[in-house]
Amino acid sequence: MESKYVYLQPTPVRIWHWLNAFGIVTLIISGAQIRFPEYVTVCGSYRSAILLHNTAGIVVALSFSFWFFYYKWVSGALTNIYVPKMDELSNGLLKQVFFYFWGYFKGASSPFHATPDSKFNPMQKSAYLAIMFVIVPLVSLTGIMLLNIGPLRQILLIIGGLQILVALHFLLACMLGAFLMTHVYLATLGSTPLAYFKPMWTGWEKVDHNHHHHVTEELHGAADRS
């Protein structure tokens, strides 16, 4: 079957993605050493782990700000790409769940095909909505609070003290780590294990001829409406 290529991931998105991924992995490793210093010593001394963790946290927070700025004001596609619509949840969510847990292992094709204006299926949108709009902001906020314990002492007392803040930050970080592992696994479920990784390096995703024809019609339709 003839294949075509669709430019799915612009350069700013790819830069953000890998910077964010590297930062989060660094946070997980350094955070594990801070939490379990007797078992994890990858980052050298305990002080080095804290310094690395704090630096990576600032980088990820700035990276998140860049992501939000780009999708909200540059591309203007934040809501369309990341927030699922009601018809997507009612018509596509269960189909995608069924594909991931059953259809894929039976050789079925995915019920969703990415386009430049619709990159994520309903299940991905639901997950990203929770991660990018709830988990990441909260883990960043709690991390910033831990970096400013002195000035924020009164606020810490209101929420229950430092131990509550540390526990909340750790719990949110565990959720983010679990998402990362799931994200990497699902990224291997393409036509080949690396099919979904390549667009994040090159920007281009290979699609079959029928899907390319469908994408072309959608792009032409969007151009006619604009």
Give the CATH class: Mainly Alpha
Number of helices: 10
Bin the strand percentage.
under 5%
Bin the helical content: 55-70%
Overall number of domains: 1
Please, what is the CATH homologous superfamily?
A: Transmembrane di-heme cytochromes, Chain C
CATH topology: Fumarate Reductase Cytochrome B subunit
Which quaternary structure do these chains form?
Answer: single chain
In order across it, which strands form the biggest sheet? Answer: 1-2
CATH architecture: Up-down Bundle
The strand count comes to 2
Note poorly predicted spans: 211-226
Overall 3D form:
elongated
Structural class: mainly alpha
End-to-end distance: 33 Å
Task: Specify Rg, calculated over alpha carbons.
Answer: 20 Å
Mean pLDDT: 88
Structure description:
The chain contains ten helices and two strands. With 226 residues, the chain is mostly helical. Helix 1 (11-35) runs antiparallel to helix 2 (46-74), helix 2 (46-74) packs across helix 6 (122-147) and helix 6 runs antiparallel to helix 8. The protein has helices at residues 11-35, 46-74, 78-82, 86-91, 93-103, 122-147, 153-159, 162-186, 199-202, 209-225; strands at residues 3-7, 204-208. It is elongated. It has a single domain (11-114, 122-194), classed as Fumarate Reductase Cytochrome B subunit (Up-down Bundle), CATH 1.20.950.20. The longest helix has 29 residues, at 46-74. The chain has a two-stranded antiparallel sheet. The model is unreliable at 211-226 (pLDDT under 50). The protein starts with a strand and ends with a helix.
